[in-house]
Amino acid sequence: MMQEGGYYCSKKTDDICEDVCGQESTRGALSMSRLRCILRGLDFKSYVLLFIIVPMCILGIYIHGQKITYFLRPIWESPPKPFIEIPHYYHENVSMENLCKLHGWGIRESPRRVFDAVLFSNEVDILSIRWNELYPYITQFVLLESNSTFTGLPKPLVFATNRDKFKFVKSRLTYGTIGGRFKKGENPFVEEAYQRVALDQLLRIAGITDDDLLIMSDVDEIPSRHTINLLRWCDETPAVLHLRLRNYLYSFEFLLDNKSWRASVHRYQTGKTRYAHYRQTDYILSDSGWHCSFCFRRISEFIFKMKAYSHNDRVRFSHYLNPSRIQDVICRGADLFDMLPEEYTFKEIIGKLGPIPHSYSAVHLPGHLLQNADKYKYLLPGNCKRERG
Ligand SMILES: *[C@@H]1O[C@H](CO)[C@@H](O)[C@H](O)[C@H]1NC(C)=O
Ligand SMILES: *[C@@H]1O[C@H](CO)[C@@H](O)[C@H](O)[C@H]1NC(C)=O
Ligand SMILES: *[C@@H]1O[C@H](CO)[C@@H](O)[C@H](O)[C@H]1NC(C)=O
After folding, report:
1. 140-177: per-residue pLDDT in tens?
2. Nearest residue CA, atom 6 of ligand 2?
3. 152 CA from centroid of ligand 2 (Å)
4. Which ligand is nearest to the CA of 95?
5. CATH, range 84-293
6. CA of 114: how far to CAs of 134, 168, 236, 320, in Å?
């Protein structure tokens, strides 16, 4: 009776198979043995399918589900409406009048006032580079920080403890704090929206008035100095304008693309202008600065950010937070969350597969970064090693 279908039992289990399928079984074991006999009736291929391929597929979908959905994204999602790109002209020796004219704008008799408002988390170095870059043209720097991350984790008031590093903006700073609501299991975008509303109030406290310019961007989205100077001097610029920024990851060694678009500059209108970080108009000014994501000095800051930011659901496995793995990912220019590129066409997804190529250009970077290259070495090409702890 072992001749047919028995070959999948190894020598050791032969006895068991025989036992079970033999007629001697007790009543209690009967249903169990029937099942085993049925299983024995299946051929080898079905077995492989049932117990190896199917579980592997389920495991594969569990582990790589994001990759599968992102890869198929071009099928289920069409790209957003393209922006209307405004060409950007700049050279240090061209007069402002000519620069405005090149953009089809007139020049003003005096520049507009400019407010730069950010929600701060913990990016002290990037804030320092940002404020030094923008310093000559900003009327008031407005900074709000909360003791809660967007995901509801308690966080220290990092700006408050580093305030001595920002003495140079003291006379132009409006600083505010806000208590987190610490709602468990809430969508992180709710806390983020709550903090942005508070930032609107802080802007009024800072004295913003109609027709002042307001920069709305994350701390790590840094408009270049000459871009802001152009916008404050020229007339007839769009009332709301997105800024196209070069997208860097981990440092200025990894230039991902030139597609960052969320930063925007608004001509403030009381009661109408609301601080936001999504698409607000079709117009975008080309090559207007830098967006350096995950540009941290310490591995611990990477871990904090991975847990704290609005897409924290991307930390699907705890080993993603392993410091050695994070260091290795940074040096390779790979993805911290092991995700596929978020693109809308197969061509772009495939074009971006694998790590970001190294860039060896440190030309046209923020001035404060190069003037203090020793201090910010980890942000420059060829220095991917981060501080532990
Ligand atoms: C740019 O202008 C400065 C000062 O006006 C002048 O010294 C310099 O030679 C100019 N450079 C070029 C390339 O025209
Ligand atoms: C956060 O700040 C608020 C207001 O300052 C305070 O009442 C609350 O205790 C703080 N929570 C934590 C966890 O620090
Ligand atoms: C981004 O733009 C810069 C300057 O316009 C260019 O040198 C660079 O090659 C562009 N990079 C990518 C990835 O498109």
Report:
1. 999 999 999 988 889 999 999 999 999 999 999 999 99
2. 179
3. 12
4. 1
5. 3.90.550
6. 10, 17, 16, 41
Q: Residue 80's closest CA among 215, 249, 262, 238? A: 262
CA 121, 125, 127 angle in degrees (round to 5)?
60
**pTM greater than 0.85 (yes/no):** no
361 Cβ inside 6 Å of ligand 3: no
The H-assigned helical ranges of the chain are 11-21, 27-41, 44-48, 54-71, 73-76, 96-102, 124-134, 158-161, 188-205, 225-233, 299-308, 323-332, 346-351, 367-371
pLDDT-derived band at 29, boundaries 50, 70, 90: low
On the question of pLDDT at 190 being above 70, the answer is yes
Min mean pLDDT across 35-39, 60-64, 253-257, 331-335 is at: 35-39
Q: Domain limits of the chain? A: 6-73, 84-293, 299-379
C-beta separation of 337 from 315 below 8 A: yes
> Pick from 144, 140, 174, 142: which is nearest to 159 by CA?
144
Whether ligand 3 lies within 6 angstroms of the CB of 246 is answered as yes
Beta bridge partners of 176: 144
Ligand 2 pocket test: pick from 145, 146, 147 the residue with the most ligand atoms within 8 Å of its Cβ. 147
Q: What are phi and psi of 298, to 5 degrees?
A: -115, 145
Give helix 299-308 / helix 323-332 axis angle, nearest 10°.
100
Per-residue pLDDT for 187 more than 50? yes
Q: How far apart are CA 230 and CA 73, in angstroms?
A: 38
Q: Which residue's alpha carbon is at the smallest distance from atom 14 of ligand 3?
A: 257
Q: 3-state DSSP call for residue 187?
A: coil
Burial of 19-31, coded b for 16+ CB within 10 Å and e otherwise, reads: ebbeeeeeeeeee
SS3 content of the chain, % helix, strand, coil (to 5): 40, 15, 40
Q: How far apart are alpha carbons 329 and 337 in whole angstroms?
A: 10
Q: How confident is the model over 104-132, as a mean pLDDT?
A: 97
- Ligand 3 center to residue 8 CA distance, Å? 59
pLDDT at 15 over 50: no
